[in-house]
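Q: I'm building a small set of examples for a reading group on sequence design. Run inverse folding on the following structure and report the sequence directly after it, with nothing in between.
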């Protein structure tokens, strides 16, 4: 039989909090929790409570030894020769020193990059900030890691596209991270994917983006970012069938990726398939997906199917439930305008303008929708041009967006939707983010 607790020679090797486990391993509590979630660190939960945990030192020893082969057997047992508080504190300090010796900053950065990559496979608007944080921490630990910089750039671009951040600020920071990645490794797959997205949203260089994506395809790696980039190019060229098929394939390969599900619903709306788009939104939600794009697409489709005025109550409820979704407020503003409730529509514009002054969200497209609802087409075009300059997701679909059909048929505004470099080049749209390193630093 083993030693009973309280008997002579017994040493309690159980660690009962995340803090004690982290001190023993010489890492932060967040890192330990990430190791548990992503790499199977043996931590036990009491009654299923995520905050009530415990671990045994011998199990941690075995996990560490299996992981890097450098952790001696029975680490805690030998350090816990005394059960006094002062000795316990000294043992935790020794564990910290041991942990620092066993893992280099470069190795920890590589682990962070791998954790971010795993999260990317199940990309959602809620975990994007976590992904960006992992990549940013990796760049701090290892400034020579090009994948960390490229991943940070990709995460910032995705936050801009999905409405988490204002495109102008997000693309500004993404450009700085991408320049650093390209300086370290000009042929890096992740960096080329990010560069293609910058050409789509910032430079509006469709041909340059196509060349990059073709180069990426020849590299033989399968990545959702490259597939989404091709879909964006197809949308910009009003080739909605190929865009739909590209996204459907991506959804089959990445069923947990919310961004692909959202974009597929949006393409269905752009093609005029309003009922099928609503059905896709319902399927996406039933599969656990959520996001501002899904909500906005549903609102746009319901207006198209049932008329703006009849949907005002529904839209008011949706905006109350999602106050951070500025695009959804723009759809409500459009409905107010169509219903002749111009005072309410202008209040929505005032609210969106105040939100836009914080520099947090893309508000130009929603304000344009509200002006369209009131029949103020020239003012709507002015805001659409601003949305285009910002590099918003919605601007990629201007050539097909059913809400903009009246503008596209207006000869005074046909130039903005011209078939050349769609939309036609807007002065200073790019601002030379790559050619002028100081511009985005």
């Amino acid at each position: 039989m083993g030693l009973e607790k309280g008997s002579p020679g017994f040493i309690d090797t159980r660690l009962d909090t995340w803090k004690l486990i982290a001190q023993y391993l010489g890492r932060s509590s967040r890192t330990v929790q990430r190791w548990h979630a992503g790499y199977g660190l043996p931590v036990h939960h009491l009654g299923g409570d995520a905050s009530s945990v415990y671990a045994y030192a011998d199990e941690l020893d075995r996990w560490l030894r299996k992981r890097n082969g450098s952790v001696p057997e029975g680490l805690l047992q030998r350090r816990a020769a005394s059960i006094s508080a002062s000795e316990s504190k000294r043992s935790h300090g020794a564990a910290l020193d041991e942990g620092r010796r066993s893992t280099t900053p470069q190795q920890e950065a590589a682990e962070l990059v791998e954790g971010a990559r795993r999260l990317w496979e199940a990309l959602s608007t809620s975990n994007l900030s976590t992904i960006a944080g992992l990549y940013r921490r990796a760049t701090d630990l290892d400034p020579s890691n090009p994948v960390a910089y490229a991943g940070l750039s990709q995460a910032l671009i995705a936050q801009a596209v999905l409405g988490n951040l204002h495109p102008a600020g997000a693309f500004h920071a993404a450009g700085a991270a991408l320049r650093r990645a390209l300086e370290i490794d000009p042929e890096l797959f992740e960096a080329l994917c990010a560069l293609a997205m910058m050409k789509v949203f910032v430079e509006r260089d469709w041909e340059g983006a196509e060349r990059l994506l073709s180069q990426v395809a020849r590299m033989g790696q399968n990545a959702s970012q490259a597939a989404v980039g091709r879909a964006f190019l197809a949308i910009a060229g009003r080739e909605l069938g190929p865009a739909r098929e590209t996204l459907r394939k991506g959804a089959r390969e990445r069923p947990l990726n919310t961004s692909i599900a959202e974009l597929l619903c949006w393409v269905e709306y752009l093609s005029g398939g309003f009922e099928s788009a609503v059905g896709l939104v319902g399927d996406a939600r039933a599969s656990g997906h959520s996001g501002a794009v899904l909500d906005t697409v549903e609102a746009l489709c319901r207006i198209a199917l049932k008329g703006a005025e009849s949907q005002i109550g529904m839209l008011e409820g949706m905006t109350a439930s999602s106050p951070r979704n500025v695009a959804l407020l723009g759809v409500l503003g459009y409905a107010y305008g169509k219903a002749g409730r111009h005072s309410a529509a202008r209040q929505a514009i005032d609210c969106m303008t105040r939100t836009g002054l914080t520099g947090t969200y893309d508000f130009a497209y929603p304000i344009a929708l509200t002006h369209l609802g009131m029949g103020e087409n020239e003012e709507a075009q002015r805001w659409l041009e601003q949305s285009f300059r910002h590099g918003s997701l919605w601007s990629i679909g201007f050539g097909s967006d059913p809400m903009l059909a009246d503008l596209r048929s207006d000869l005074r505004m046909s130039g903005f939707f011209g078939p050349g470099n769609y939309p036609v080049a807007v002065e200073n749209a790019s601002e030379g983010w790559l050619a002028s390193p100081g511009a985005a630093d």
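The longest strand covers residues 49-56.
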